[in-house]
Design goal:
By secondary structure, the chain is mostly helical. The chain has one domain (about 10-155): Ferritin, core subunit, four-helix bundle (Ferritin), CATH 1.20.1260.10. The chain contains five helices and no strands. It has helices spanning about 10-40, 45-75, 80-90, 100-125, 130-155. The longest helix has about 30 residues, at about 10-40.
């Protein structure tokens, strides 16, 4: 940990940085998985899904920056290379699919899993006394829920 005048106790900052770093790996993974869907989607809804998946990726990239910067603000180090993220992410590997519906299902599953991790991070950072990090994760959670809604809406009428 780097020295900082941040008044959170160092023990709490250390644990929050570990939490942020874990979520950073998954956030980077979510970003690349959304781009995988964006690049490879095929089918009659191609343009709508292609553009939606790119917006999801763009939002995830914003979350990446916010999560990484919060870790550094607390005196930590952001471990954000592709190799670091790949080795630490708990998200399921993205399937090799082309059909639009298959991409919708795959990306929705990743968004839902990531949303659960973020909601857990809200609680964990709150228990550690870091309301600011809990607030950051709350903001991300609201965004992920919105993107999950947008993605799932493509298949909900069929159920």
């Amino acid at each position: 940990m780097h020295r900082t005048k941040n008044d959170l106790p160092e023990a709490a900052r250390t644990k929050v940085v570990e939490l942020l770093d874990a979520r950073l790996a998954e956030t980077l993974d979510l970003y690349t998985q959304a781009k995988q869907a964006h690049w490879n989607v095929k089918g009659p809804n191609f343009i709508a899904l292609h553009e939606l998946f790119d917006k999801v990726a763009g939002a995830a990239l914003e979350y990446v920056d916010e999560v990484a910067e919060r870790a550094v603000q607390l005196g930590g180090v952001a471990h954000g290379t592709a190799r670091m993220a790949a080795g630490r992410s708990t998200l399921a590997e993205y399937p090799d699919v082309a059909d639009g519906r298959a991409h919708v299902e795959a990306l929705a599953a990743r968004l839902a899993a990531y949303g659960k991790l973020v909601r857990n991070a809200i609680d964990e950072s709150g228990k550690l006394g870091d309301a600011d990090t809990a607030d950051l994760f709350t903001e991300i959670s609201r965004g992920v829920d919105k993107w999950l809604w947008f993605v799932e809406a493509h298949v909900q009428a069929e159920r």
